[in-house]
Specification:
By secondary structure, this protein is mainly α. It has one domain. It is built from 22 helices and no strands. Helix 1 packs antiparallel against helix 2, helix 6 packs parallel to helix 8 and helix 8 runs antiparallel to helix 9. The longest helix is centred in the first third of the chain and has 32 residues.
C-alpha cells in the first residue's frame, strides 16, 4: 500500500517536474530537492504506520503528528534558503485556520453523539431491533437502511459501530451472517454519509471550503442509494431467511434523551444557517449549538437531583460519574481522530509547499481529465483513506464544474467501501468484530461493491448532467 502511494507521487515528481508552477505562483518547485524528497518519504512512512494501526496497536495520530512537525521544519528551512523566511509562517497559518474550523465542528458533533450514547439512545434502538424477532435477511436490510439514514446526521463511523453492534447481537455465532451484514453496514454508512456535509469528514471539508452549498449535496442522493442498493441486493442472496434467537433485555432511553436529539437537530440547523445566510463558518454555529447543550445539561443535573450542595458544575474530576456532565462528554471525544486530522492536514499542506500537489494536480486533472481523475480519487481513497486524498484535492483546487465537485465528493465518500481499510467505518468494525469481519472477508465482496461504485458514477453523470455546465 505504501509503495502504491509512493509511486503516484514519484511518477508526478519525476515525469512532470516542470508542471509544478501550475499551482500557486508563490510556491517553489522543490520536488527534486533533498528536503522535498525527504518530506515525501517521511509522510509515506508515517502513513504506512497508520495503515498498520491494527497490527502495531500504535494510535494513528502519533506518526502523523511527528511527521507534520518535521515536514514543516523542512519547509521553513527550504524557504529560508530561498531568501523567503516569512513564507512558511503564512502558509502554516492557513492550514491551522482550516484545521481549527474542522476541529471545533467535530468537537461539538462528537459531544452530542457522546451525550446521546450516555442517554441510552443507541442502546434503546439496538435492543428494539434485537427483540423484534426479525429474520436474518430482514435484519440485514434494516441495519443497512438505518445505517444509510442515520449516517448523514451522526456520521458514518458512529453509525457503523451502532449498526454493527446490532448485527453481532442478532447474528451471534452465525459468523457468515455477521460478515455480510458488517460489509453491508460499511457500504450503507459510507453511501449515506456521501450526500450530507455531516456524514463524512470529506463532505464537511468540501462544504466548509464553499465548493458545494448545503442543499446541492442532495443532488447525489440517488447515486448514493444506487451505490448501496446494488451490492446489498447481491449480498442479501447469501443471507439465510431464518429467525435468530430473540432477547428479553429491553433498554429504555434516559431522561432528556429526546430533548438532546431535538437540540442536536437545532444545532445542525444553526450551523447551516450560519453558513448559508450569515456567511460565517459552520463551526461557529456548531459551537453555539454546544452552548444549547451546556445549558440543558445544567437543567438535567438539577432535574435528576444530582447537583449536590456545594458541587461545582465545572468540576470534571469529581467521583459522581452518574451525573450528566457536559465536560465529561467533551473529554470523551475521539481525541486520537481529532489529532490525526491535525497531522494529516499539516502533512499534506507541507507537501504542497514543496510543489507536490501542483505537480499531481497537473498530472491528474490536466493529463487524465476531470472525470477520470475524480474516479481515480475514489479508488485511491480505498487504498489510502479518503481524508488526505480529499484534502489534497481541495488544496490543489483544480478549476472544475459543480458536477465534477459533486462527483469527487461522491467518489471520495463511497470509494473507501471497496476495501475494509478504506474508510473509518470499515476500520472501526474490524476492531469491534475482530477475527470475524476481516480484510479478506471484505475483499470477497469487493467485486459487488465495485459494481455499485461504477453504477453510482454513471447515475450521477446522467442525472446531474446540468451541473457539469457551470
Amino acid at each position: 500500500m505504501k509503495s502504491i502511494f509512493f509511486s503516484i507521487f514519484t511518477l508526478a515528481a519525476t515525469v512532470l517536474p516542470a508542471a509544478a508552477a501550475g499551482g500557486s505562483s508563490d510556491i517553489a518547485n522543490l520536488t527534486a530537492s533533498a528536503m522535498g524528497i525527504f518530506a515525501l518519504v517521511l509522510f509515506v512512512a508515517a502513513y504506512g504506520l497508520v495503515i498498520l494501526e491494527e497490527k502495531l496497536h500504535l494510535r494513528k495520530s502519533k506518526p502523523v503528528l511527528v511527521a507534520a512537525g518535521i515536514i514543516w521544519v523542512l519547509v521553513a528551512l527550504s524557504y529560508q534558503a530561498l531568501g523567503r523566511p516569512d513564507h512558511a509562517h503564512g502558509a502554516i497559518m492557513h492550514n491551522l485556520t482550516e484545521y481549527a474550523e474542522l476541529f471545533l465542528f467535530l468537537l461539538a458533533a462528537m459531544t452530542y453523539i457522546n451525550a446521546l450514547e450516555e442517554r441510552d439512545v443507541f442502546s434503546a434502538l439496538r435492543s428494539w431491533l434485537v427483540n423484534k424477532g426479525f429474520t436474518l435477511r430482514t435484519v440485514f436490510w434494516m441495519t443497512g437502511l438505518l445505517a444509510f439514514v442515520i449516517s448523514p446526521i451522526a456520521d458514518n463511523l458512529t453509525t457503523a459501530l451502532l449498526m454493527g453492534a446490532v448485527a453481532m447481537a442478532v447474528g451471534g455465532a452465525n459468523t457468515k451472517f455477521v460478515v455480510v451484514a458488517c460489509i453491508n453496514i460499511v457500504v450503507a454508512a459510507n453511501a449515506g454519509g456521501a450526500f450530507s456535509p455531516f456524514g463524512d469528514i470529506t463532505t464537511l471539508m468540501v462544504w466548509q471550503k464553499g465548493k458545494i452549498q448545503f442543499f446541492e449535496f442532495f443532488a447525489i442522493f440517488i447515486p448514493s442509494v444506487i451505490n448501496w442498493i446494488i451490492p446489498a441486493a447481491l449480498m442479501s442472496m447469501a443471507v439465510p431467511n431464518e429467525k435468530p434467537e430473540s432477547s428479553d433485555v429491553t433498554v429504555s432511553m434516559k431522561l432528556g434523551a429526546k430533548r438532546i436529539m431535538a437540540l442536536f437537530l437545532a444545532t445542525i440547523v444553526t450551523a447551516v444557517s450560519f453558513h448559508n445566510f450569515l456567511h460565517l463558518p459552520p463551526a461557529v454555529g456548531m459551537m453555539l449549538g454546544l452552548g444549547y447543550l451546556s445549558f440543558f445539561s445544567y437543567w438535567l443535573k438539577k432535574k435528576e437531583h444530582r447537583l449536590l450542595s456545594g458541587d461545582n458544575p465545572l468540576d470534571v474530576t469529581g467521583h459522581n460519574h452518574a451525573t450528566f456532565d457536559l465536560f465529561r462528554k467533551i473529554a470523551k471525544a475521539e481525541w486520537d481522530t481529532l489529532l490525526f486530522f491535525y497531522g494529516v492536514i499539516l502533512c499534506v499542506g507541507g507537501l504542497g509547499q514543496f510543489g507536490y500537489l501542483a505537480v499531481t494536480s497537473n498530472f491528474m486533472y490536466n493529463g487524465l481529465g476531470h472525470t477520470t481523475a475524480n474516479v481515480l480519487v475514489g479508488i485511491l481513497s480505498a487504498i489510502i483513506d479518503n481524508i488526505p486524498v480529499m484534502f489534497a484535492v481541495l488544496t490543489m483546487d483544480p478549476q472544475m464544474s459543480h458536477g465534477q465537485w459533486l462527483l469527487v465528493t461522491l467518489t471520495a465518500g463511497v470509494g473507501g467501501s471497496m476495501l475494509s481499510i478504506g474508510s473509518a467505518a470499515g476500520v472501526a468494525l474490524m476492531g469491534s468484530a475482530r477475527g470475524v469481519y476481516t480484510f479478506g472477508a471484505h475483499l470477497k465482496w469487493t467485486w459487488a461493491i465495485a459494481l455499485g461504485y461504477a453504477a453510482s458514477i454513471i447515475t450521477h453523470l446522467f442525472l446531474n448532467a446540468n451541473y457539469f455546465t457551470h
